[in-house]
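In response to the reviewer comment on reproducibility (Comment 2.3), we provide here a single inverse folding case reported in full, input and output, so that an independent group could reproduce the run without further information from us. The structure tokens appear first.
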């Protein structure tokens, strides 16, 4: 019952297959009848009175070799190990089927295919989701069965509940078990009871199961046949030549991966190579760049990171890159080489760095601190700076201009400098030496033609008298006029009684001498006038200051 409905629906909704319904509750198909078909789908809806006979017929078909049998849910209820129904079982078919259906294991509750349990195979290719509202599961895989997917929950007996499993035998026959009831029209609408890749799973099963692929002969529709149905050896389980992008890994060990697409930015490139930095493909979310080379000093590093200052790799547009942001070492955080005037104090190299190359502030353009004697005039701090430590030139210690009274002798300008304001010591207040301490005559020279007497007696002369009072000798006696040429001369004479007189000697037109004796009081007044005059002269010559 229900075979015709399943055949019609599957023919319409699976690709490239034609199905024929055959109800067998009351008939047993012959081997000749079964041999007309590439595969046999056997499912049960109810109890078969002739289940053993039908099972023996299907087992005979299968054991010929090169045949395929598929069973579906409710086949298990007539197995001989199901004590609930106490049936004779499926006869010889039970020896070659892939699942066991124990009593009490069947589930009649919703469940879904565990996506993490799917094993890649032509049967599961493109199958991602599958859910059932009822009529599924309740089986266990027999030893030797390859399970390709499982339900999320265990069966009623608490054991793993496979969705689909298969086995290949040495005679080339294949047996597939699917724990979904195909006769869904009798027990609920598809879309309610079964969702997801229901038809995809059945269609894949018959495409793989009924194909002659694997017999070692390339038949129509096959690209290759290497005598097996193993993927990854160059010829797929569907007898297609393996190539990059077909979704099958290891094309005879030529592929590192195969994700079935030609996208280069995911986990497998279009060359079926695992992505690595330097392959020229920027892997999404993993690499910032990939320039396909192992050159580290271009725009993309060998770790596939965009070049940046501070990555420790000196790029062609960088002076340096020391992989830190310390601005006190030889490389700044801008990847420029540290230099005097950059505004950063380079430890152990610079004494200062004010960010400019001026030489009038506290830091010179050589990044040393300004000081007196460096030859640069520090604005607002120094009056002068001649670049030397010579205190005898125009700029002296402390970078001050030389000046009279600073205690330093300005060579070529000052005779002396005693650093005080005392004018009558060895250096005057205008930094000149004082005049020599000597007695002078009125003309600044020594007295001529006279000898200072001490007793009032005339001085002796070397000349002789001639004509009256004229004295041609160089000396003179008290009260006498010497006969000598020249301007008038004032002569002090001490008399015998201890007093002194002043005699002014003049020369008349006849070369005579007119002598005048002055009172000592008059002589004192003349001295005072001279001192006053000297005082005036001193006041009129102020001390030079610098």
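Designed residues, in position order:
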């Amino acid at each position: 019952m229900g075979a015709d409905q399943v055949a019609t629906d599957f023919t319409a909704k699976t690709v490239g297959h034609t199905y024929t319904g055959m109800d067998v509750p009351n008939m047993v198909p012959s081997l000749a009848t079964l041999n007309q078909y590439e595969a046999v789908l056997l499912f049960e809806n109810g109890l078969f009175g002739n289940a053993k006979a039908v099972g023996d017929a299907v087992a005979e078909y299968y054991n010929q070799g090169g045949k395929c049998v598929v069973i579906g849910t409710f086949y298990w209820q007539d197995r001989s190990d199901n004590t609930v129904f106490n049936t004779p079982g499926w006869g010889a078919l039970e020896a070659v089927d892939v699942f066991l259906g124990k009593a009490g294991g069947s589930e009649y509750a919703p469940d879904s295919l565990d996506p993490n349990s799917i094993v890649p195979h032509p049967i599961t290719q493109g199958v991602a989701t599958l859910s059932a509202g009822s009529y599924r599961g309740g089986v266990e895989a027999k030893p030797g069965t390859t399970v390709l997917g499982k339900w999320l929950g265990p069966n009623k007996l608490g054991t793993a509940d496979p969705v689909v499993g298969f086995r290949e035998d040495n005679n080339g026959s294949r047996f597939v078990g699917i724990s979904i009831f195909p006769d869904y029209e009798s027990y609920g609408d598809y879309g309610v009871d079964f969702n997801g890749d229901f038809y995809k799973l059945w269609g894949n099963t018959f495409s793989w199961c009924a194909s002659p692929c694997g017999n070692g002969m390339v038949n129509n529709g096959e690209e290759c046949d290497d005598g097996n149905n193993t993927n990854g050896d160059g010829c797929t389980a569907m007898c297609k030549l393996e190539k990059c992008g077909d979704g099958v890994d290891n094309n005879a060990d030529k592929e590192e991966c195969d994700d079935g697409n030609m996208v280069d930015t995911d986990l497998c490139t279009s060359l079926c190579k695992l992505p690595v930095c330097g392959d020229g493909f920027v892997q999404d979310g993993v690499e910032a760049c990939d320039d396909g080379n192992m050159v580290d000093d271009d725009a993309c590093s060998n770790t596939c990171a965009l070049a940046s200052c501070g990555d420790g790799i000196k790029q062609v547009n960088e002076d340096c890159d020391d992989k830190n942001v310390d601005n006190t070492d030889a490389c700044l955080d801008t990847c420029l080489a540290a230099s005097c005037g950059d505004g950063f104090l380079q430890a152990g190299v610079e004494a200062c760095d004010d960010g400019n190359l001026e030489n009038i502030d506290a830091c010179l353009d050589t990044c040393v601190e300004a000081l007196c004697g460096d030859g640069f005039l520090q604005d607002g701090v120094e009056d002068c700076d001649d670049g030397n430590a010579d205190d005898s030139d125009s700029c002296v210690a402390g970078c001050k201009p030389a000046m009279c009274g600073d205690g330093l002798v300005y060579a070529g300008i000052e005779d002396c400098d005693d650093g005080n304001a005392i004018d009558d010591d060895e250096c005057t207040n205008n930094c000149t030496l004082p005049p020599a301490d000597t007695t002078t005559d009125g003309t600044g020279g020594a007295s001529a033609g006279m000898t200072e007497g001490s007793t009032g007696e005339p001085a002796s002369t070397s000349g002789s008298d001639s004509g009256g009072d004229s004295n041609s000798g160089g000396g003179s006696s008290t009260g006498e006029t010497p006969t000598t040429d020249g301007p008038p001369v004032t002569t002090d004479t001490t008399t015998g009684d201890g007093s002194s007189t002043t005699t002014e000697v003049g020369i008349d037109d006849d070369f005579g001498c007119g002598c005048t004796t002055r009172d000592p009081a008059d002589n004192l007044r003349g001295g005072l006038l001279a001192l006053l005059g000297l005082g005036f002269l001193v006041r009129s010559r102020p001390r030079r200051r610098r």
